[in-house]
# Entry
Amino acid sequence: MVAKVNQRALTEEDLESEIPAGSKEQVTVDQKREYVRRWIRNELLYQEALKNKIDQEKDIQQRIEQIIKDVVVTNFVEREFVDSFTVSPDEIKAYYEENKQTFLREEDEVRASHILVKTQEQAEMVRTKLVFGANFGKLAAEQSLDPDTKFRAGDLGYFSREMAHPAIAEAAFGLEKEHFSKPVETEWGFHVLKLTDKKKKGSIREIWEVENLIANILSNQKRIEVVDRYIESLKKKYDIKKYGWAAEGTS
# Structure
């Protein structure tokens, strides 16, 4: 048990189940404490709502029933047809080649990596090591406080000025390729940036930048087609009746 509000408990197992499998080793104790804090806040409000019998109101019950129905349907579809939604690399490539013009950059973008530390002194030390030849990816893995990027060499990907924190954007767009920034302060700490690429507005994104997006598009298309076919087959098995206005103009 890691927390309790009256008789409702939050266990270590409950908390771990909320963390994606690939991120468990990267989650810090401070992040877990923040989760516990939010859990307690929500539990206080939930228990107070129960005292006021909010859960017994008709509209709440209807919404709960609809949520349960949606979850059951989603789980059933995923279990029965998951293999049908798989997208191959060839399908992704074909979609990319046919739709390149939809992947134009709308603004100038840069690609940068960063190492996040707590203090300016630590950031200065990191920058000095980099200037004298230290490996950026290794330093990021060893010292960066950003769990989302530290194990991918600090890579932030491509971003426009509007997509990034103002201080990060100003520093990154002012760098030359392969150069390092001075320490950049944000509310998260101090960053040392390395510029790895620049792209002009109107340039086409590389396939590796958009392959996850394409995979989702194609997978959703397959999902719709497969489920629609399955529903048509179910219509032949089940007794369906519609009455009055509901029976007019629909199949």
The longest helix spans residues 207-235. Residues 66-104+207-231 form one domain. The helical segments are 12-17, 29-51, 58-81, 89-98, 120-131, 136-143, 166-173, 207-235.
